[in-house]
Design goal:
The chain is α/β, with parallel strands linked by helices. The protein contains twelve helices and 23 strands.
Length: 508
């Protein structure tokens, strides 16, 4: 669909009246198919539901639509949509460079602060991110403009912008060691990922060779009890780490046939890592730094050695730091696109916490969830407190419960947002790059071009929620749908889900 047609649909949808979701369901092919699979394996023994409506008020599929279920990454629809709607698609996260001390003859007698503002793209390998050396060159330029050629002090990574624990306390412990469960404060580096190379031994029972790869984290101590398993067992490694101590442990097994691979794990010290790499950049580019990198702990103390948790002194209050320059993230419409297309948990959590910061004055999870509830009401979601319980921004939590009915009410409200066009384009399409690349393979390309939706998956959970734009482009014929399944241990349920969406697309 062309950008012109998308814009037309977005503007026209503002005129469409609200509709009731309790209208009589039409006898559509999709409804018939939903009723058929409801009485067959594997759906008959699962918890699932679906609602699909046209913007003109017609209900096309309605089966178990009030059931609250774990939505997995469909939760990202809330965090990305609300961020676009309330912050605006052109919003950028700001990172400031400042100092505390005095400058004499080009020498700063004091510390340089990297004041994080939540930018999740710093040093990211994402194509939208500023290359790290280019970013550091800008930061160095701020120092030069301020007349600083030498630093008698530390480079301090300051992540205090986001208050509270870096992780959500309802995430499973086994998720916290991986790239999808990293968490973070206001200053990150490389999406707070720690890469390792893993290589199985030559025989069953041999140690798996685990080697830290990127980024360097010299303060960490690593333990490895992983062993080589029989061929066919694949990758069953687990990495455990915490921000309570600079320790990481790799456990589990790696199959004989697995070969050397890269494991993307969690780095709980993103602010320190950022300071470490900027410190090294300055040294290599002619700016002497007498001390070294540091970060700030939860109590406002400057830590100069995480390995020993050595405290240097109390950090300066942010208001007392002299800011000498700012850099900015890509616009959040670009970040939202990446978030939904590859289902990036780290980006999604950043969106949620930024909403908490702006609308509740704090980025801790309690405030952020309260901000989200407030903004859902302001968006105009019908019965905003009915059919929803949310604990995070990414869907990693199994304490999220949302009904298909709720997602349809929310997605319908989003069509009336000035940022609907950006939100729609952030959603993947079948056969295109992203999480839908292998979905709806047998569907007509013209049908696939009209379908936009977000997937959600974890053990036992498979979900689709989104839109089907009408063939004519008439906004009143746009279909809003949500298909959620829980307790489905069978893996090959996608063909049936794809068939439901394909049948649905015949209705417009």
């Amino acid at each position: 669909m062309t950008n012109k047609l998308l814009a037309l649909a977005a503007s026209a949808l503002l005129l469409v009246p609200s509709f009731g979701l309790n209208a009589q369901t039409k006898n559509t092919a999709a409804q018939k198919y939903a009723e058929k699979i409801d009485s067959e394996a594997p759906f008959e023994n699962a918890v699932w539901g679906m609602l699909a409506v046209k913007m003109n008020g017609d209900t096309l599929v309605n089966i178990h639509s009030q059931r609250k279920m774990i939505p997995a990454s469909n939760t990202k629809l809330l965090s990305t949509g609300l961020a676009l709607h309330n912050l605006g698609s052109d919003f950028r996260f700001e990172t400031k460079i400042g100092y505390k001390g005095n400058i004499e003859n080009g020498v700063l007698n004091g510390d340089v602060y990297i004041l994080g503002g939540g930018d999740p793209t710093i040093a990211s390998s994402d194509s939208i991110a500023v290359k790290i050396n280019d970013l550091f060159a800008q930061w160095k330029g701020f120092l030069q403009k301020a007349g600083i050629t030498k630093i008698n002090g530390h480079i301090i990574g300051d992540g205090r912008f986001f208050e509270g624990p870096i992780e959500n306390d309802c995430w499973q412990i086994g998720d916290g060691g991986w790239d999808y469960g990293v968490g973070g404060n206001g200053l990150c580096f490389f999406e707070n990922v720690q890469q390792f190379t893993a290589k199985p031994g030559q025989r069953i029972g041999d140690d798996v060779k685990i080697t830290p790869k990127y980024p360097e984290t010299p303060w960490m101590t690593y333990y490895n009890t992983a062993t080589t398993s029989a061929a066919g067992n694949g990758d069953d490694l687990y990495y455990f780490t915490t921000d309570l101590a600079p320790v990481g442990a790799m456990r589990g097994t790696l199959g004989l046939e697995s070969g050397t691979r890269t494991e993307d794990c969690s780095n709980k010290y993103g602010a320190m890592t950022c300071a470490y790499y900027f410190y090294n950049f300055l040294k290599k580019n002619g700016v002497a730094v007498s001390e070294g990198p540091a970060d700030i702990d939860d109590y406002g103390n400057i830590r100069v050695d995480i390995a020993t948790m050595e405290i240097y002194k109390q950090a300066a209050e942010v208001r007392d730091i002299t800011v000498i320059g700012s850099t900015y993230s890509p616009t959040i419409d670009k970040i939202a696109y990446e978030t939904n297309h590859r289902s990036d948990n780290f980006y999604a959590e950043t969106f949620l916490r930024m909403l908490g910061k702006k609308y509740r004055g704090s980025a801790d999870y309690e405030s952020s969830i309260a901000a989200e509830a407030q903004l859902l009401k302001e968006l105009g979601v019908k019965n905003p407190d009915l059919g929803i319980q949310v604990s995070d921004g990414s869907g990693l939590s199994r304490q999220n419960y949302i009904s298909p009915d709720y997602f349809v009410r929310y997605l319908t409200a989003m069509t009336k947002s000035p940022e609907y066009n950006s939100f729609l384009k952030s959603l993947p399409q079948p056969g295109q790059n992203g999480t839908l690349k292998s979905r709806m393979q047998n569907a007509d390309p013209k049908v696939k071009a009209r379908v936009y939706f977000k997937t959600g998956s974890m053990n036992g959970v498979r979900c689709y929620s989104g839109y089907v734009i009408s063939e004519s482009g008439k906004p009143e014929d746009t279909i809003v749908f949500s298909l959620l399944t829980n307790n489905l241990v069978e893996k090959n349920v996608y063909p049936m889900m794809d068939t439901l969406i394909t049948n649905l697309a015949k209705e417009n």
